[in-house]
């Protein structure tokens, strides 16, 4: 068994040396393809992190009618307190809301200081417990309050959150489709590379078959060659993606933190890294297997 493995490794090395240019072109193509896929994954991971961070900061704002009764307000507060997912409740009166609004916008527009009445309603700001179902919990409470008398409106950014979630679904589907296309293309590229390796050793392979060599003995070095192409290609691709990630962090991390607090540019997680490596191994194995199986079957028919 050990001699079989050593022989397969030596033959693989010989095949790579004999077709060095084609081998390097194949590795370069795999590297480019996996770099593109890795960058898509990098964008997706960071957008998903951004959505998660925004989701944790989302609050349900309940704007009250100006003529709401004290009893209605007490009933509302009881409803909020009875919801186990509500983490904190803060009441902002009309005067507090107007004062905060003027402090924010009076320097930017003189129109605000000229108003002699308060157009803002009182409101409750509800913060919810962190968790994967946080947005769903906010939606459920908001839906239950829509018909409640004394409430003027409800706000928690439902439209932009829904649009962002739809965009993430579209992006996920796009990545999967592009990934599938790239995988098929890479399998064909590796298959053609291995074909060239087979044809360069055609006389040798035919002689081995005449001498009684098994298909396993002939297939193994060629399968290893495809695996080597895939592993080297994905390794280089991940290195390039990591360099781009480091550059982006160095250039834009400070600006990103000033705009989105608590958001950090993330690299690909271990599940994605292992998925890309395993896919590269699979692509190399399938591409090689297709070529050598097709050749051996054509030889058997002769």
Summarize the structure in words:
The protein folds into two domains: 191 residues, no CATH class; 98 residues, Alpha-Beta Plaits (2-Layer Sandwich), CATH 3.30.70. The model has no long low-confidence stretch (mean pLDDT 77). It is elongated and about 100 Å long. The chain starts with a helix and ends with a helix. Helix 1 crosses helix 9 and helix 9 runs antiparallel to helix 10. A four-stranded antiparallel sheet has the order 2-3-1-4. The protein has 302 residues and is of the alpha+beta class.
Q: What is the percent of helical residues?
A: over 70%
What can be said about the biggest beta sheet?
Answer: 4 strands, antiparallel
Give start-end ranges of low-pLDDT stretches.
Answer: none
Mean pLDDT value: 77
H-E string: HHEHEHHEHEHHHH
**N- and C-termini, Cα separation:** 31 Å
Counting helices, strands and paired strands, the structural category is alpha+beta
Helix count, DSSP H or I runs of 4 or more residues: 10
Report the portion of residues in β strands. 5-15%
Radius of gyration: 31 Å
Strand order of the largest sheet: 2-3-1-4
> How many separate structural domains?
2
Envelope shape: elongated
């Amino acid at each position: 068994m050990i001699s079989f493995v050593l022989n397969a490794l030596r033959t693989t090395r010989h095949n790579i040396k004999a077709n060095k240019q084609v081998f390097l072109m194949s590795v370069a193509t795999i590297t480019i393809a996996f770099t593109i896929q890795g960058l898509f994954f990098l964008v997706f991971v960071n957008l998903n992190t951004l959505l998660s961070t925004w989701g944790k900061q989302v609050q349900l704002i309940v704007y009250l009618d100006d003529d709401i009764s004290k009893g209605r307000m007490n009933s509302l507060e009881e409803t909020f307190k009875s919801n186990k997912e509500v983490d904190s409740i803060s009441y902002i009166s009309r005067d507090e809301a107007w004062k905060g609004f003027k402090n924010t916008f009076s320097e930017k527009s003189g129109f605000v200081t000229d108003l002699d009445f308060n157009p803002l309603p009182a409101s409750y700001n509800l913060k919810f417990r962190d968790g994967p179902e946080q947005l769903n919990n906010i939606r459920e409470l908001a839906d239950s309050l829509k018909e409640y008398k004394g409430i003027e409106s409800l706000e928690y950014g439902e439209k932009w959150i829904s649009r962002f979630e739809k965009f993430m679904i579209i992006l996920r589907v796009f990545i999967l489709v592009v990934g599938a296309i790239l995988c098929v293309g890479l399998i064909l590229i590796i298959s053609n590379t291995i074909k060239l390796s087979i044809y360069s050793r055609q006389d040798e392979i035919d002689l081995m078959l005449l001498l009684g060599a098994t298909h396993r003995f002939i297939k193994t070095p060629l399968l290893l060659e495809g695996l080597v192409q895939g592993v080297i290609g994905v390794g280089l691709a991940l290195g390039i993606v990591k360099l781009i990630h480091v550059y982006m962090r160095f250039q834009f991390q400070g600006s990103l933190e000033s705009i989105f607090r608590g958001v950090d540019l993330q690299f690909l997680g271990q599940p994605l890294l292992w998925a890309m490596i395993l896919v590269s191994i699979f692509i190399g194995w399938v591409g090689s297997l297709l070529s050598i199986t097709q050749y051996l079957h054509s030889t058997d028919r002769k």
